[in-house]
């Protein structure tokens, strides 16, 4: 993959870093969370705290607990070993293994262990801090505090000098430390963040560097895969959480404007050939640039990029075959169905997708971002194989015509860092709020607690959605109060209906909107929403209308069995498929019965995401 950044452009970036910081300063130091922009007159929605939402859904909860169990089981000496070795300190204990190791003789041509030493440490600290905030577990909190104290004695420039990915690792450590302070009560985290920043800065580039561009003399190609263009998001967050002005200035310095955000803001599609996960992840930096600086250019870039990404996404919501973004009309999606099994980098891609769609939903209040988040959740990451303590991790969703769920060949890859974070974030993605009330974004067995004009309120969801049409909710309130309850009506949900206390609510329930029920609520009030899940066929792309996915509500139904995607099917036969159990559909196709399962119900069976329609 060739970089779009020329050496001349790199020189412009390097020499323009100070100017970029000056521009950032000119925009003002205070957060613009209450700013108003054209087309979005209201302030952004706010997230609930991790401890204010409880997710009771069995698969969501199982993924969270699995991640907690694995991270809590990891040896602390093994976790600190790469940091200690790279700092020239005694390093007792066993190597953790896989990518996490430090190997001074690593050769990317044939080695695997040692590829990204210590890279997931900050993500795991972040995930554990989030778990503590969700559950109040003192055992988990103690683990976070203990690991941070052990990490403190290893902070050294040698970690970055010897690392292929200094920006990547620094980015994750920044997030781990700010989450430790905010969510796990680590009062030492700000000082550790300052020390970490001082150690890392001499080994970071002058400005954001496009992937594949050489910038460290005397190093091999693997050193070009760092991701400096992703770090502004967490630097902006550090600034807004009180870390100081330098983090805001650093964030501005690493905004990837020349070859990425500027053309995107102009509506130029520059996605093709970019590394999929990291460049989509960088769009969250654009959103933080708007939230912190009020930069409408960066908001336009993120919105335009989302539309461009959607145009090249699979019906599952996944994107990026072989970790590359593609041209929407170039035939690469179709070719990927037979050329690769490495279709969507699932935990990492889902983490980036969740963050981006949550930001965009907060800013725009446009329900399509919630629709997109829901589709990715049910059709990709919620069906990931569980993380293992020996480092086995689920990496790619496989959309090949003969697909399977398998563990990665790599131990402790990047996806072992993001999966625990995704699992911790289901709750904060489910509900959002503003001063007038709350938004229900994801329909899961869950509950949320909040204070509404002096009334202590909670809303509980009970549902088997998306395997059933209805979602039942019940309100508990310490006193009656007025607020607006907004319910997401997916774009596919024609004929949605809502009842309040058993009576039909006659307000608008247009597909692709939030239905807003604004009334005085009382303790015990009941709400039921029906979202009819009619079967439909969604083509892979406009160039291949006969290559389709069978979709029910937000669920892609995967055809089970060897060769199931290569046989030609009649449209009418597929649309007569019947749900015969909670997680199982069947279709009578000629003389045979075709079994179809949603991604979360597939174990080790061979399957096909796509079906071929008869001419």
How is the topology of this model organized?
Elements (H helix, E strand, L loop, with lengths): L6 H9 L1 H10 L19 E2 L5 E3 L2 H16 L2 H11 L34 H15 L2 H15 L4 H5 L4 H19 L4 H12 L31 H12 L1 H9 L3 H9 L10 H18 L2 H16 L20 H8 L4 E2 H19 L2 H13 L12 E3 L1 E2 L9 E5 L3 H16 E4 L2 E4 L5 E7 L2 E9 L6 E8 L3 E9 L7 E4 L2 E3 L7 E9 L4 E5 L4 E5 L7 E6 L2 E6 L7 E2 L1 H5 L2 E4 L2 E6 L2 E6 L9 E2 L2 E3 L2
Parallel strand pairs: 8-12, 20-25
Antiparallel strand pairs: 1-7, 2-9, 3-5, 4-6, 7-8, 9-10, 10-11, 11-16, 12-15, 13-14, 13-16, 17-18, 18-19, 18-25, 19-23, 19-24, 21-22, 22-23
Helix pairs in contact: 2-11, 3-5, 3-18, 5-6, 5-8, 5-18, 8-9, 8-10, 10-11, 10-13, 12-14, 13-14, 13-16, 16-17, 16-18
- The number of distinct helices, counting runs of at least 4 residues, comes to 19
Outline the biggest β-sheet. Answer: 9 strands, mixed
Work out the strand percent: 15-25%
Structural class: alpha+beta
Mean pLDDT: 93
DSSP, total strands: 25
Instruction: Enumerate the spans where pLDDT stays under 50 for 5 or more consecutive residues.
Output: 1-39
Q: How big is the Rg?
A: 24 Å
Shape, please?
globular
**Residues in helices, as a percent range:** 25-40%
Terminal CA distance:
37 Å
List keywords for this structure.
615 residues; alpha+beta; 9-stranded mixed β-sheet; 7-stranded antiparallel β-sheet; disordered N terminus
What report would you give on this structure?
The protein has 19 helices and 25 strands. The N terminus is likely disordered. The strands form 5 sheets. Strands 17, 18, 19, 20, 21, 22, 23, 24 and 25 form a 9-stranded mixed β-sheet that branches. A 7-stranded antiparallel β-sheet has the order 2-9-10-11-16-13-14, covered by helices on one side. The protein is of the alpha+beta class and 615 residues long.
């Amino acid at each position: 993959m060739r970089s779009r950044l020329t050496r001349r452009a790199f020189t412009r970036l390097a020499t323009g870093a100070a100017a970029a910081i000056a521009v950032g300063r000119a925009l003002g130091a205070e957060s613009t969370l209450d700013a108003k922009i054209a087309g979005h007159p209201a302030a952004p929605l706010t997230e609930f705290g991790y401890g204010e939402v409880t997710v009771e859904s069995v698969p969501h909860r199982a993924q969270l607990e699995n991640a907690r169990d694995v991270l809590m089981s990891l040896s602390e000496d093994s976790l600190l070993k790469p940091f200690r070795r790279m700092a020239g300190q005694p390093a007792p204990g066993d190597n953790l293994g896989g990518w996490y190791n430090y190997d001074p003789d690593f050769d990317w041509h044939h080695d695997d262990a040692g590829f990204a030493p210590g890279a997931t440490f900050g993500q795991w600290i972040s995930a554990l801090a989030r778990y503590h905030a969700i559950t109040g577990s003192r055992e988990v909190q103690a683990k976070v505090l203990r690991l941070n104290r052990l990490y403190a004695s290893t902070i050294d420039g040698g970690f970055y000098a010897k690392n292929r990915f200094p920006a990547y690792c620094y980015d994750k450590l920044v997030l781990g430390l700010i989450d430790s302070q905010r969510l796990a009560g680590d009062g030492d985290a700000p000082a550790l963040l300052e020390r970490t920043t001082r150690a890392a800065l001499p080994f970071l580039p002058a400005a954001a560097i496009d992937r594949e561009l050489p910038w460290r003399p005397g190093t091999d190609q693997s050193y070009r895969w760092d991701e400096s263009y992703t770090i502004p998001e967490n630097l902006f967050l550090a600034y807004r959480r009180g870390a100081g002005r330098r983090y805001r200035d650093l964030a501005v310095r690493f905004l990837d404007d020349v070859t990425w955000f500027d053309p995107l803001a102009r509506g130029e599609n520059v996605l093709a050939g970019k590394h999929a996960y990291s460049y989509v992840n960088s769009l969250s930096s654009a959103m933080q640039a708007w939230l912190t600086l009020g930069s409408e250019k960066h908001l336009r870039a993120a919105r335009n990029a989302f539309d461009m990404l959607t145009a090249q996404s699979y019906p599952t919501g996944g994107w990026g075959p072989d970790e590359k973004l593609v041209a929407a009309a170039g035939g690469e999606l179709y070719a990927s169905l037979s050329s690769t099994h490495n279709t969507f980098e699932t935990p990492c891609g889902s983490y980036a997708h969740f963050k981006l769609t949550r930001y965009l939903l907060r800013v725009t209040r446009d329900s399509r971002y919630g629709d997109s988040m829901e589709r990715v959740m049910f059709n990709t990451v919620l069906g990931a194989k569980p993380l293992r303590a020996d480092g086995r991790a689920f990496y790619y969703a496989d959309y090949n015509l003969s697909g399977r769920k398998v563990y990665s060949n790599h131990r402790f890859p990047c996806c072992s860092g993001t999966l625990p974070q995704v699992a911790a974030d289901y709750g904060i993605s489910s509900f959002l709020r503003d001063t007038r009330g709350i938004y229900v974004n994801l329909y899961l067995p869950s509950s949320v607690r909040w204070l509404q004009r002096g009334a202590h309120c909670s809303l509980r969801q009970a549902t088997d959605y998306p395997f059933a049409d209805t979602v039942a909710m019940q309100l508990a309130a310490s006193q009656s109060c007025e607020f607006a309850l907004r319910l997401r009506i997916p774009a596919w949900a024609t004929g949605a209906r809502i009842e309040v206390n058993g009576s039909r609510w006659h307000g608008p329930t247009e597909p692709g909107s939030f239905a807003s029920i604004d009334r005085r609520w009382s303790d015990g009030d009941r709400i039921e929403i029906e979202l009819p899940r009619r079967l439909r066929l969604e083509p892979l792309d406009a160039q291949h209308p006969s290559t389709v996915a069978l979709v029910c509500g937000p669920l892609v139904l995967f055809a089970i069995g060897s060769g199931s995607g290569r046989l030609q099917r009649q449209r009418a036969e597929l649309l007569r498929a019947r749900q015969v159990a909670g997680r199982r559909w069947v279709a009578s196709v000629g003389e045979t019965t075709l079994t179809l399962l949603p991604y979360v119900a597939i174990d080790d069976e061979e399957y096909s995401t796509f079906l071929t329609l008869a001419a």
